[in-house]
Design a protein that fits this description.
Blueprint (H helix, E strand, L loop, with lengths): L6 E5 L5 H11 L5 H13 L10 E6 L2 E13 L6 E11 L7 H8 L6 E4 L7 H6 L3 E10 L13 E4 L11 H12 L3 E6 L4 E11 L3 E9 L2 H6 L1 H10 L5 E5 L8 E13 L13 H4 L3
Helix pairs in contact: 1-2
Length: 290
């Protein structure tokens, strides 16, 4: 094994991007070099909170990257105050340097005021993730047909794209910014406007099994808001050929028609705040693509 003196861990800088992209291409053979080029470009333009790594960390030996972990640090709007969150993503170490992998992860998750999430751990890595102190916060996914919702919502609610018009009822400016950025990532960024306020929703277009059109719920203020406003959102989506919505869940969701898939795409967290359901804003799912 290479000596510890020849290996160091440091933040990834702009000048490292090409080498890191090559390393990730070798480590994740199902992803192309262009995929990693786009992912690293998204990180480079992401509004990372001050004082935190823009890309993540790398292991370096004799000036060459031999290990990498990508990190997406974000300030997430909340009802009372913004929360600091980090999506841990794309962890790879060259086989000859695997003995130094613990150094990489210890640097990555060292910030005590940050909630870390891992939203796509491979099956064989889940015991490792749990050994690092992560716990599940979702156990499966619910596939909903929102247009068939049994919940009684606001009869006069209207769904608007973020670019259609500025709502003439109260809304949070930080959520308007969130909608705009996620529109740029290719998501459907919507307001559901009621008489009392505008509710933000971000939905990511997907094709399940390669051919079934649907969307995945990426952001809402609460799952209760989505259930209450499911019918107008469902009608909006059905007109665009996407009648189904995938929602992270821990069981069937009262008020929605659909089916629960236990064990499908569980998600993990570590840190001071348990993530709420219905919030995958600024994660690899939208910034890197599935």
């Amino acid at each position: 094994m290479p000596s510890a003196q020849k290996v160091r861990c440091r933040q990834i800088n702009d000048s490292d991007v090409d080498g890191v992209g090559d390393l990730l291409t070798r480590g994740f053979r199902i992803r192309s070099r262009n995929y990693w080029r786009r992912a690293l470009a998204s990180l480079g333009s992401h509004p990372t909170p001050a004082g935190l790594p823009k890309y993540g960390y790398l292991l370096e030996s004799d000036g060459a990257p031999v290990g990498v972990i990508l990190l997406i640090f974000s300030s997430i709007p909340g009802h009372d105050a913004a929360a600091m969150r980090c999506n841990v993503s794309s962890w790879y170490v060259e086989p000859a340097f695997r003995g130094h992998a613990a150094l990489l992860i210890s640097q990555a998750i060292k910030h005590k005021n940050v909630t870390y999430v891992n939203i796509s751990p491979a099956m064989h890595t889940r015991p490792i993730v749990e050994a690092q102190g992560f716990a599940r916060y979702t156990t499966g996914q619910f596939v909903a047909a929102p247009m068939l919702s049994r919940a009684r919502g606001d009869d006069g609610a209207k769904v608007l794209g973020v670019d259609d018009m500025v709502p003439n009822v109260p809304f949070e400016p930080s959520e308007r910014d969130l909608l705009g950025l996620h529109r740029d990532y290719g998501c459907l960024a919507l307001w559901c406007v009621t008489a009392e306020r505008a509710y933000p929703f971000v939905l990511m277009p997907r094709r399940v099994k390669g051919f079934i059109p649907c969307v995945q719920l990426i952001y809402c203020r609460s799952i209760e808001d989505f259930v209450r406003l499911a019918q107008p959102i469902g009608r909006y989506l059905a007109k665009r050929g996407r009648p189904l919505v995938i929602v992270d869940a821990n069981g069937p969701i009262d008020g929605l028609v659909g089916w629960y898939l236990d064990g499908k795409a569980p998600k993990y967290f570590k840190g001071p705040q348990r993530p709420r359901l219905g919030d995958l804003a600024y994660t690899e799912a939208v910034m890197f693509g599935l």
